Amino acid sequence: MRNKFIHYSLVMAWMLLFCVPCVTVTYAQSFTVTGTVTDSQGGIPGANVKVKGGTAGTITNMDGQFTLSVPSSKSILVVSYIGYTPQEVAINGKNKLDIHLLEDTKTLDEVVVVGYGVQKKSHLTGSVSKMDINNLTDIPVTQVDQLLQGKIAGVNIQNSTSEAGAAPQIRVRGMGSISADSSPLIVIDGYPTPDGLSTLDMADISSIEVLKDAASAAIYGSRAANGVILVTTKTGKASKPKYSVKASTGLKWAYKLHPIMSSQDYCSMIGYESVLKNKTMSQTEEAFGLIDNYTDWQKEGLNSSPQIHQVQLSVSGGKNDITYYISGNYAQEDGIMLNSNYTRLNLRSRINAKLSKRVDFSLNLAPSYTKTETPATNFMDFYRTPSFMPVRHTAATSALTGKPIGSYARGSDFSNVTYTREDGTTFTPSSSPFGSSNNNPRSLMDTEERFREDYNLQANASFNVQLMKGLVFTTSNGFFIKYRQNNQYRDYAAKKDEESAMGTYTNRLYIDLLSENTLNYTGKTGKHDYSVLAGYTAQTTSERTAGIVGLGFPTDYIHTLNAATSFDLDGTYTQKYRTAMMSLLARATYSYDEKYLLSASIRTDGSSLFADGHQWGYFPSVSVGWRASEESFLKQFGWLNLLKVRASFGVTGNNSIPANSYYDLLYPNNYALGEGNGNLISGLAKTSETKSNNRITWEQTYEYNAGFDLSILNNRINLTVDGYYSITKQLLFKQPVLSFTGFNNYWNNIGRIRNSGIEVELNTHNIRTKNFEWESSFNISSNFNKLLELSGEERLISTGERNETYLAQVGKRAISFFGYKTDGIYKSQEEVDAVPHLASAVPGSLRIVDINDDGVINDKDRTEIGNPFPTATWGFTNTLTWKGFDLYVMIQGVHGLDVFNGDGYFTETKKFNRNYVKNRWISADYPGDGKTPSFAANGGVAWEFTDYLIEDGSYVALRNVTLGYKFNKKQLKKIGISSLRLYASGQNLFYIWSKDYRGINPEARKTSGSYSSPLINGYQSGGFPLQSTVTFGFELNF
């Protein structure tokens, strides 16, 4: 568009150029008029103001103001500026005019960043989305990833946890792998970073593009199978120094908590149930009513007043031959849960210099520091703990248990305790009413610290050398260094180590070196436009990790290792590895008469992750486009600005596997047979975990894409539609092996998976007037996957922590929940006896369906019971501006997916939660709704995976609302300020989800341990509550 920061000397020169002839044509009866030329952002500097049919004219100053002598008070002014619709304004005797120009998007051709260069958006032949980053700096999040949610069709952002500083999961066009990493490649200022977007601040970002189809991403070869996200940071412009200060502060709170019953409510419920059953209450349940205590355990696990603070300072400017942009950012975020905290401090500097007419130089430096504190336990440990148990022993519970007042209470404290009834009788339950597993989660939080610190430095220097007209050589060399320290200390009171304090310390040093060198030639001959790119890249990474566990700390006041009295050798280790990759790449683009477009690329990567003979992968692409709107038979339609049809094919790769996958690892071990006399022999042996495989090679994704771009009504309505079909071959998978081999698994290429879908993006400029503008953006996408081949197997079953099972079956979606279907509950013993059932089935337990009608309930009755993948994701944003006010509203939704509510597996979780006891079965005479089982009579089904625990995970979220006000520039100029804006922003303010969903966070997913596997997806248990946030901030420029 235009440059809002034109150098003042240039403006003055143009003013002189136009003012001189203006003076020479001034008439004796001249009329002087003043005015201001503005757009939606304020005054436009350098706008042309001329008298229609005459020679008098001038340009506006830095504030968009002008003064002009005209021949007559009835003269007509013609006001114009590049990128805006020219406007004719009749003076009609007025001495002062306010002229508002509207953007003429018909004359603009936005430049889009692509791999190793830029292209005109009108000439793109692949599927590339450019994210509108306006308003995003106000949103109260510390992770840039979260800002992508709902903004781009085909990009699914999953906020699997509300933990402070946690990065969300990003998927572009579905699940591209069943075992290797499915995350997109992140490229920041041309550097493929292994650390994602975590160290970026939104205020430093100039643009974000997503390369979604293989034709666009193939130039990145083996790392682009899951899409590419390109981030370009801000640069300085030739001007006086410009300073910017942006700061915000806000509060957070839990959007919703579990409806946990109080002590009194629970006892009343159990007492009422006992009356209905005509039975006496069990001594264990009776004991609850005699413990005089109520603790809101959910609140005990939450921060009392979590806050979020962000500050960003920047300075930019320079001269014609050198420009700079320097910024510093500070972010501090309290998690919604106790002991969850995130702190980030990052600096960024970007210097561009013109060393000569042919040589340009650029230097990027980005050091950062982050500290992340994590809770010692999950949220479930709080809401499953009965409210009868105190955090610390009170006088009443101390008298009952004999434990000191103020000491942390535990479930085991209430074992073998004698309780006294109101009538004076006593009893001693055979076990603690809390159970031996009811440890105190607050004691864990108070007595264990966990935090990690990351020190990062990314640096990149590049030279552009113009060898001849149209031919540019670029060399870019840089590095990324990360040093991470993990610290964990448990004191004497921690449940996991009551006998001895323990400290665990690990560190990791990661170094990535990258050199990229390209030659790029662009030319034009008549109606032929063409460019050719060729390049060579080399990259090496190394990593060293070490860990040590100290025991027997004599005091909890000293956590350093030198205070430990002994060390756990099993927890002490060191590791190191090094990998390398070398690549050749080429790309050619061609257009004829701005109508017919062609692009082709190829990249070949050689990776040390694979053995000789399998190291090289080849990734070609080709795409075509037709700008039909440029044809003479369509140009007659004035309302049609652009109609472009596109089609592409490309191949991308994935090599995201461990560095040791094709060779065996050795580790110290004892030989089983020893010397034959009982004496063991120590030596080196192959690890029993993973067997080597020197035949593994790249995953390769073959993708077809077709789409069109449509702009009408002076580009006020813009529509982009894409459809794609991709097949990933040679799927990398950690395949189990028989135990007699001495190994557990090995990496192998085992099958194929298909992804297909459709994406729609619609942007509209609904209203554009002098004082009011309203713009909308809507996107929606659907993705469908199918497993096509599994190395000769028909299906693969994976198991989670609660014995829940996940099915990957050839011919069906990549993952399905796999278990038993239910048909309500058994209301009576007669119903149990009338149908096939588990031997443990009793009245009140779930009725399992005999799927194969063989009269037996067994594993053969398991079937697909849910789908963890959404069928549709969408986002809808509206931006309204009126005079100095602006309002931004974003709504985002996900539909058609299921989640497994793991809380339903835990009796302790269910029995105090109203969602699980409401309308439950009590007896044959009081069967409830016929669907909700008795928590006391699961009939063995509690440990079976059924659809009773599968719930609709769809939701609609009011993701963000931001209201701002920008002060009048004329008033601010008097005190030396360029602009000042105040704003208030709210995040996650309102949700709508299915009545079927009994949890508190439909976005939550467990992703650690076995749940890090792509084959296990959709499990919820112990997730943090959704967090809502409101912040207030300002942005000051001077």
TrEMBL record:
It comes from the Bacteria. It is a multi-pass membrane protein. Residues 1-28 form the signal peptide. Residues 121-228 form the TonB-dependent receptor plug domain. PROSITE patterns: TONB_DEPENDENT_REC_3. Keywords: Cell outer membrane, Membrane, Receptor, Signal, Transmembrane, Transmembrane beta strand, Transport. GO terms for cellular component: cell outer membrane. InterPro entries: Beta-barrel_TonB_sf (IPR036942), CarboxyPept-like_regulatory (IPR008969), Plug_dom (IPR012910), Plug_dom_sf (IPR037066), TonB-dep_OMP_SusC/RagA (IPR023996), TonB-dep_OMP_SusC/RagA_CS (IPR023997), TonB-dep_rcpt-like (IPR039426). It is found in: Cell outer membrane. SUPFAM superfamilies: Carboxypeptidase regulatory domain-like, Porins. Belongs to the TonB-dependent receptor family. This is TonB-dependent receptor. It comes from Bacteroides ovatus.
